[in-house]
Automatic annotation (TrEMBL):
UBC core domain: residues covered: 4-150
Source organism, top-level taxon: Eukaryota
InterPro entries per record: UBC, UBQ-conjugating_AS, UBQ-conjugating_enzyme/RWD
The protein's name: UBC core domain-containing protein
Ribonucleoprotein in keyword set: no
UniProt keywords, alphabetically: ATP-binding, Nucleotide-binding, Transferase, Ubl conjugation pathway
Stated family: Belongs to the ubiquitin-conjugating enzyme family.
Species assigned in the record: Oopsacas minuta
GO molecular function list: ATP binding; transferase activity
Name of a matching Pfam family: UQ_con
Length: 151
């Protein structure tokens, strides 16, 4: 592990590696221990099931006073995730508190995949499609999962 990192980051990283979040693989980059390569398995019984979604997570200099930066690299059809992979999640913005951890953030993202919220969208077109015809939107999300998130 890189020297000079705050004990908090070292502890959180150690715990992520020794007790991984079920369905999520998060590993620090070998050249930058503040940057994590993340793979989230699509939750069971969702349109994202069977997908493996690559994400990147970065811990800013003032973490945990500010939230981690997190984005999807794998394309995903979801009302709360835009084309650039940015995520609309209150715990990454105004509801962030230093009591939260990398683990909590990853669990929250996993929860967002299980329960898309078209009423608080980041991708307005996807949210509109989700509201207009949820069945069709779910079919599109499944199709995107097959096309972009299969390993």
């Amino acid at each position: 592990m890189a020297g000079g990192l705050p004990k908090r980051i070292l502890r959180e990283t150690e715990k992520l590696l020794s007790e991984p979040v079920p369905g999520i693989d998060a590993r620090p980059d070998e050249n930058n221990a503040r940057y994590f390569h993340v793979i989230v398995n699509g939750p069971k019984d969702t349109p994202f099931e069977s997908g493996k979604f690559k994400m990147e997570l970065f811990l800013p200099e003032d973490y945990p006073m500010t939230p981690p930066k997190l984005r999807f690299i794998t394309k995903i059809y979801h009302p709360n995730i835009d084309q650039l992979g940015r995520i609309c999640l209150d715990t990454l913005k105004d509801k962030w508190t230093p009591a939260l951890t990398i683990r909590t953030v990853l669990l929250t993202v996993q929860g967002l995949l299980s329960a898309p919220n078209p009423d608080d969208p980041l991708a307005n077109d996807v949210a509109a499609a989700w509201k207009a015809n949820e069945t069709k939107a779910i079919a599109t999300a499944r199709q995107w999962t097959r096309i972009y998130a299969q390993v």
